[in-house]
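Structure representation.

___
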Amino acid sequence: MQLVQQLVDALSLAAVYLTIALGISIIYGLTRLVNFAQGQILLLGSFLAYSFVRAGLPLVWCIVLATLAVAIIGEILDLLLFRRTLSSPLRGFVISLGLIIIIEQASVLIWGQNVISVSTPFTTHVFNLHGVLFSAPLLLLVVTMIVLLTILFFLFERTKVGRGTQALSENRATAQLMGIPVGRYISFTFLVGSAIAGLGGAIFALMYPFDAFSGTQYVLIAFAIAIIGGLGSITGCVVASLLLAIPQSLASAYISISWAPAFGLIVATLIILFRPNGIFKSAGTGGASHFALGDFSDRLHASEIRLAAAIKASRVNSVRRRLQQWGMERYGIWCAFVLLGLAPVILRSDSSLSIATYMVILAIAGVGFWLTFRQAGVFSVASGALMGVGGYMAAYLLDRFNVNFWLQLPAAAAAAGAVALVIGVIAIRTSASYFVILTLMLSELIILLFTNFTSVTNGSIGLVDSAPPSSLGPINFGGADAFYYLAFCLLAATTLFVFGVCRSRFGRRLISIRENTELARSLGVNVLRDKIAVFTLFGAISGVAGVMLFYYLHYITPATYDVPLTLDIVLIVLLGGATVWLGPMVGAAIFAFLPSLLSLSPVVAQLVYGCCLVAVIILMPTGVVGKFKGLYISLWFRLHATTKGVVDSAPNMSSFADPIENTESNQVS
């Protein structure tokens, strides 16, 4: 009987997954948009239903109004944000990361960060059928999903709208030539997908306690369900949701509730690796969405090439030509390091110096992410977990064996590099969107290990140690100035190391892989080996940053290195500029000092960060430094390009606002 009860519980979990997965499948199948904010959109339905219940509205109206409100919000996000990124999937994905932060923090501001439960006579009613308990909300959710699946099946299989949507999913260009109104169909899919999430969220609020951060734990599995079931296949989504929910529910009952999420993640990982096209119908290209560095740099790189040609052809003297060829960016790097070196002198207060230290530590992690993305085109979302590996290695060696800091540092780098190597071997052979999903899943598995291996990590309580890094000869790092300079020296060493990698033959091979993988492979480049190698280097650098973060905070917990830290690292690099050397440092400076300068609370600061990330992707995808670099190139043409024909080819300053000419987005708007 207990087994039957667990299967019933699995049914409720599968229904929750299905409400997210159906929306993902419909939207992703048509737009190739990796929308990781779908879990937060479901939570909006939960919060709105909770508010309507508190306002005293009938329960049916609470569910209906929450569904309609979320559908409208989803369509607004489509028109204002996602519609601008149809030809650049990576930018759409990054926008969804920003929306995760925005919706989470806005929910905290509006509803608070406590766990919320909706209690009504309906929610507490339970049916007992031969010893098996069925709650009234569970029955409502199951019946609703059966009706919803019937409607969706009829809509997509038997109507003109459904056939048009499937045609667009298979080949958008051909569908456009046939006269199918792409914009209307995309609006339709966003409305339907968001409404399903809102409906599921409203009923979810009647079944489970939730808070502002509950969405992330469901969206990974739901995205895997959409892919496993086959994009666009309603039947596949149903089967895949059961396939993942049942092992998780049984593991929770018979093995360990704390390890239960790991089973769902492992099953999803294995199926994505060995059955990437789905169990049933698949769009066939769902995992082949091309995440390209060019989404953030195309026109900027083209303008740099024109600038180099103009300098070579210009009539300026040889000394001045060499200075111009040296470039603004390298001057900027030297100036940045001089300013960072003088920070303890410039920043007189201890609080400002502490912020500067935090900035430098984040910049170290940002440089590692920058290396993989800028050099190899590998968009990694594992920064937080790999920093955690380094931080826990240092904390464990210090706590149990009192190992010297200068031995902890290489051990942590090696451990994080080894974990990154394993992740790379597992995930990097997959295509872009699958790689993002797999790395997030494997990162969550690492965080679960941190939480559950209490004998090593002390679980969610974590490890605390106030000891400073070990002295180096006469230098003691107990003071704020000395610790800052330690972090600064590690940033300088990391930057020099990355510069050497970029200038090496290995770095040039990575560029060839980034620009054209198939061509690089045809020229004899071992693409898989080189990508795994650069991912391993990224892990080692992240491990070093994790050690420094542990010594900066003087404690370590699994929550310290969870998904929000990864999103912060992505924000730092993209905010500063993903294709310029100064990008990680400038992005880290803005990220660290902005709350202090504007006197923002932590919640408001995170909300501002999310808005900044979305605004940067929409308004200036090359980042702050990339924007100024573009303006510098344009100004150079106007002031110095005197050779005939050079001025005529000068780039328009306004072109740097958006390096991607999103023609497809314009067609469907």
